[in-house]
């Protein structure tokens, strides 16, 4: 009888075994697009500080089809990341009032409501309506 422990082989396809794993990996992958968008905005601030010519060149880059596709993908991943976090919040940050816990739907709902209000404020400030 061998005393060597059994080591289950882990292949690169492990994430496809269950839909939950795929959702988890998509959520983790979303940070790359969110981080890329953040770096793009930092570069935009740098260009803005360098004067009108540099800002105009940056704005021209943002009008390219590749930039539009990147922004749409980044927005989609940011929305997915936000939704998954808001659904996870009651488990990560349970709120106890007295002896009872606040229902999960109330915690998630408060986050969704704040998101909606802040989105409307940003749209109003941008002059969308």
Descriptive notes:
- The structure is a single chain.
- Helices cover 71% and strands 3% of the residues.
- The protein has helices spanning 19-49, 52-62, 65-92, 104-125, and strands spanning 96-97, 100-101.
- β1 and β2 (100-101) form a beta hairpin.
- α1 packs antiparallel against α2 (52-62) and α1 (19-49) packs across α3.
- The longest helix is centred in the first third of the chain and has 31 residues, at 19-49.
- It is flat, with a radius of gyration of 22 Å.
| DSSP strand content | under 5%
Q: Helix coverage percent of residues?
A: over 70%
Radius of gyration over all CA atoms, rounded: 22 Å
The tally of beta strands, per DSSP, is 2
- The side-by-side strand order for the widest beta sheet comes to 1-2
Q: Could you give the order of the helices and strands?
A: HHHEEH
| Quaternary | single chain
Low-confidence runs of at least 5 consecutive residues = none
Distance between the termini: 75 Å
Which geometry do the CA atoms define?
A: flat
Mean pLDDT, to the nearest integer, reads 93
Largest sheet: 2 strands, antiparallel
Structural class: mainly alpha
Number of helices: 4
């Amino acid at each position: 009888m061998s005393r060597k422990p059994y080591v289950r082989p882990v292949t690169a396809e492990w994430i496809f075994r269950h839909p939950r794993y795929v959702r988890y990996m998509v959520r983790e992958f979303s940070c790359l697009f969110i981080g890329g968008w953040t770096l793009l905005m930092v570069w935009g601030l740098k260009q803005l500080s360098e004067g009108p010519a540099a800002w105009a060149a940056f704005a021209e880059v943002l009008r390219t089809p590749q930039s539009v596709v990147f922004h749409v993908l980044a927005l989609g991943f940011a929305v997915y990341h936000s939704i998954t976090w808001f659904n996870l919040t009651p488990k990560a940050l349970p709120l106890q009032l007295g002896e009872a816990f606040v229902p999960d739907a109330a915690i998630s709902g408060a986050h969704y409501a704040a998101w909606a209000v802040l989105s409307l404020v940003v749209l109003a400030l941008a002059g969308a309506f």
